[in-house]
Structure formats: C-alpha cells, structure tokens
Design goal:
By secondary structure, this protein is α/β, with parallel strands linked by helices. Helix content is 33%, strand content 20%. It is built from six helices and seven strands, in the order H-H-E-H-E-H-E-E-H-E-H-E-E. Strand 2 (79-83), helix 4 (86-95) and strand 3 form a beta-alpha-beta unit.
Amino acid sequence: MLFHEPWFGADYYEKHKEFGLDYLVFGNWQLEHAQMVKAICASMGLKIQGSGTECQILDLGCACGSIAEGLRQVFKVPTFGIDPSEHMIRLGRTRFKDLDLRVGSGMDMRMFRDESFGLIHSMQVFEHLLPHCVKSVFFEMRRILMPNGLCLAYLDYPDAPGAKDDCTHTCLRDVLWWKVVAHECGFWTSGERPLVFTKRR
C-alpha cells in the first residue's frame, strides 16, 4: 500500500471542498502555476514542445486534474494524470475532457512505457507516502522519464505551517532527506520549493 488510501476518497474531497479547497476548480491559479513550471523547465534546459514521448507530461498525484489541465493548456502537449482516488479521477474525467486521467499508484505505473515523459509534476504528494514506499515511487519515476527528464516536486517540509498537524503527512522529512533518497534512486537534485529531480544517465 502506497499510503492509507481511505484517507483520500470521497470524504477527503468533500471535507476539503467544505473548507474552500475544491480539487475540481480550475482558474487563473492553475495557469499561473503552469507558467512558473514552464519557466523552471526552460531555466533547466528542458524544452517541452512538439510531439513525441519526450514532450508528454505526467501529474503524479493529480487529484481531479485541475493542475494537469493548467499544464496542458500552457505547454500544449499531451498531459496525463495519475491518482489512487477513484472518486477524484471520476470527477476529473467529467470536467477535463482533454486529459488522460488514470487511477493508479506511483509504485506501479506499468500503464506507462519506459521513457514516456519529459516532465513529471507533483504537488504536495510525497509527504503523504508511507516512508518504505518512497524508493519504489522514485524508481518508477526514473523508469518513465526520458533521459535528462525532470520531476518538479512541491512538498511540505516539517517547518511548513501546520504540516505536523496533518495526520495524512506520513512522510514529513527535511529537504536533505529527500535529496539523499533521490540520489540513491538515480537522480540529481536541486532547489527546495520546488525540489527538482533530474534523471541521471
């Protein structure tokens, strides 16, 4: 099990919606975030344009797919999303018709071929993993990334406000911990927010 999956079903979605965080809402924030991601990719020498698998994007832990939709509109390339929540993927498929949204686990992404993506994006997902599953997820990420492909991971660290109060934060670690594990799994790392993983050859 990747994490305590019942935490992220219909109740999780409805609770966050009640408090003002609806994972189905799409607007300027998602587009502005995607523009920032594009700028980071350009600064790292990664061009996501044209056709081919090197120009595909995956949003890992996509929830309903609103961020993935922003990435699709800004980069203008095929964009996929994967999330273990059947409820949120079902909602996303009704709203974001041009995305390829899949129900699945980051530990087992066999629905995607080797070297299928130029970019993997992840927003506040890794801190929800069970610690013993982290390397399995990273190895799968490395498998599906193109050579020199990037993963941009936005995650909460222990010093983030309220981070320690969230019971779903089962892997709350400092940035050095994440960088050491990523290096052991075949990545170079840089930055902090986001933490950028570059696939080593």
